[in-house]
Design a protein that fits this description.
three-stranded antiparallel sheet, mainly beta, 142 residues, Jelly Rolls
Length: 142
């Protein structure tokens, strides 16, 4: 690729601004400038908990190709269809397969995460609670 088509971008914490506009009203988002630098191929942002705001636990899925999150501080509990509840804490990195049904149940007041999603413009679809799976009938011995 020729140098004129490449974009270099730096985003320093000192000049960072968190916005309350974003996917969830219980979070604040700091755009890291990757959407513009990648020409919409990827979005990356720091997400932090808003004081006094709790997750609503709405089931949803994202129409994207890649989504992963790295927890910087605090903890969060998520629930994934077919997986169950998972507690993420500082140092946890998790990949959410495209389209997986999930929800956030709760988080610490100091939660901070980095999220990377491709493409940058993706849809989030609210969903109903998944149906409980019926356990296969157990056969007794004897």
């Amino acid at each position: 690729m020729n140098a004129s088509k490449k974009r270099f971008h730096v985003d320093h914490l000192k000049a960072a601004k968190f916005k309350r506009r974003g996917l969830r009203n219980y979070f604040e988002y700091r755009d890291l400038g990757i959407r513009k630098a990648s020409r919409g191929k990827v979005v990356a942002h720091v997400i932090r908990a808003r004081p006094g705001k709790a997750p609503h636990g709405q089931w949803h899925r994202h129409d994207c190709k890649v989504q992963f999150v790295y927890v910087l501080k605090g903890w969060a509990v998520f629930e994934y269809e077919g997986v169950g509840r998972v507690r993420m804490k500082a140092g946890s990195c998790f990949y959410q397969p495209p389209g997986i049904r999930h929800r956030e149940i709760r988080h610490s007041n100091d939660l901070e995460m980095i999220e990377v999603v491709s493409p940058a413009d993706f849809k989030t679809v609210s969903l109903e609670k998944p149906r409980a799976r019926k356990s296969p009938a157990r056969r007794s011995r004897g």
